[in-house]
Amino acid sequence: MTPSLRLPRLDPRATWSIRVVDASTGDPLLEHDPDVQCETASIGKIFLLIEVARRIESAVLDPDESVEIPPHLAVADSGILYRMRAQRLGVEDLALLVGAYSDNLATNALIHLCGLDRVRAVAPALGYERTSLHDYIRDHRSPEMPWTPSFGTARELSDVMRRLDAGDVHSAAVSERVLGWLASNADTSMVADSFLLDPLAHVDAEYQGIVLRHKTGTTDFARVDVGHARGAAGSVSYAVAANWKGVRSDLRAPVLDAMRDIGEQIRLLVTGLPREEWKR
């Protein structure tokens, strides 16, 4: 693929970390401060899913094992498990809820099952120095708690998505299992918004033949989308993170505009369609 992506206008009030690479070669197609570390909200849940998949594939975990959620780890907000009558589910179902809805309660259940220290060690063991899942998800984060649930850089996050697609995270089976959970991600509001996929049904190739595997993260001061997109003309792995902590204005509108701009360029690149074909 020809490296033809351009950087959109980025609101200077936000801190950005951006990297898009050709997934087949690893060559950069677009970069902006790729080594700047951002708070990444739910993105670190990818490393939890990697650990769960590794344990299932090594027969340490039974995918049907029912998981009890300790009361002190109860959490709401993102996801649907906290609203369900039956909350004691199996490992595989909890992982799917994390991949599909970034489910906070399912996340805490799986972190507790695996152990927080072990989950924290997943990213460093894969060679990442500035990216990790750092803590349980909390309804309220007080000063004595870890400073963020997860953090990362665009360079490292785009790389983990490229390696997952290549089957290079522990094994092909582990990588495929993680990507299978991420395939159901229902949040296509950021970079992926421009792919025009059905948010609730894009496990297989969907609009214009695009196959998407991605994870998003959202807080009141952050938008982050990391993923892998494949089309008839090629594939890319990407990470786009924006933080505006401490800024008086809510920057979600200009941030999402820039993310969608990058997404449109990715769509053109991986589909190989000329611009006039986009709306057909």
From TrEMBL:
Protein name from the UniProt record: Serine hydrolase
Domain of life: Bacteria
Pfam families in alphabetical order: Beta-lactamase2
Record domain Beta-lactamase class A catalytic: where: 18-240
Annotated InterPro entries: Beta-lactam/transpept-like (IPR012338), Beta-lactam_cat (IPR045155), Beta-lactam_class-A (IPR000871)
One GO molecular-function entry: hydrolase activity
The entry's keywords: Hydrolase
